Amino acid sequence: MVKIDISIEGENLSEIATELTKILGEALKTNRPLIREILKAFGEEAISVLMERKMLERGAKLYREIIEEINWQYKEEKSK
Fold it and tell me: Residue 32: which residues within 8 A CB-CB, separation 6 or more?
């Protein structure tokens, strides 16, 4: 297992996340529509990333199937 520790200008990423959580908590009380837009943007980006990976996996699978079919056809023609 690999542990990655990211720090920005000497601060730990978990400290930054904690501060952001506090800020968002306060903003949620005062500005719900803005928080909804922020969460929507993050959600759409996350879905985009997942779909991209899924499409790459499908493309790789299709590529492997095509190569296998080409090799099979070649072997069939060679054996005749």
Answer: none
Write the CB contacts of 34 (distance below 8 Å, at least 6 apart in sequence).
Answer: 27
Torsion (CA) 38, 43, 48, 49 in degrees, nearest 10: 100
* Percentages of the chain per state (helix, strand, coil), in multiples of 5: 80, 5, 10
- pTM listed for this prediction: 0.41
Q: Are 13 and 7 in contact (CB under 8 A)?
A: yes
Could you read off the pLDDT of 27-55 as tens digits, one per residue? Answer: 778 888 887 888 899 888 888 888 888 88
